[in-house]
Design brief:
6-stranded antiparallel sheet, 3-stranded antiparallel sheet, mainly beta, 2 helices
């Protein structure tokens, strides 16, 4: 990662990948965290049938943008919304939520939490994971070809 006055930059291929726990179905490609900025941003990769652990944040807004795949966003026990490539959702603090992969392939979400609430610490404390050929194909497809 490049960190010079006025610019923080990098490439996903140089970023750490972790799961929160070995039993989790989701992995996190950590793009930046509170060591560089007051938020965290990552690509969350959901296996088929995978889901976020049900959670809510005290202070953080959580923004999800679906890069590929389809799923279901649940907020509280009353609201569910289908999500697909191009969908975005913002969960304000204090709202219990889940993201569930309901599709037949992996779900890829660009996710940002503002502020970080030490979420990146939890990600980095988990076991290391790896991107496979499918992940690399999806992530590289997001890069425009000149």
């Amino acid at each position: 990662m490049v960190n010079i006055p006025g610019l923080i930059a990098g490439n996903f291929e140089d970023c750490p990948i972790h799961k929160i726990s070995a039993a989790d179905t989701n992995k996190f490609l950590l793009l930046c965290d509170r060591e560089q900025v007051p938020f965290t941003s990552f690509v969350e990769i959901f296996e088929v049938g995978g889901r976020t652990p049900s959670n809510e944040h005290v202070e953080a807004y959580e923004y999800f943008y679906v890069l590929k795949g389809e799923g279901l966003a649940k907020v509280g026990s009353e609201y569910e919304m289908p999500i697909r490539q191009g969908s975005f959702i913002i969960i304000p603090p204090g709202n219990h939520h889940d993201i569930i992969n309901t599709g037949s392939s992996r779900l890829y979400c660009l996710t940002t939490m503002i502020p970080d609430e030490k979420f990146s610490d939890m990600i980095k404390a988990g076991p290391a994971a790896e991107l496979d050929d499918e992940d690399l194909a999806v992530l590289k497809a997001m890069i425009p070809v000149k």
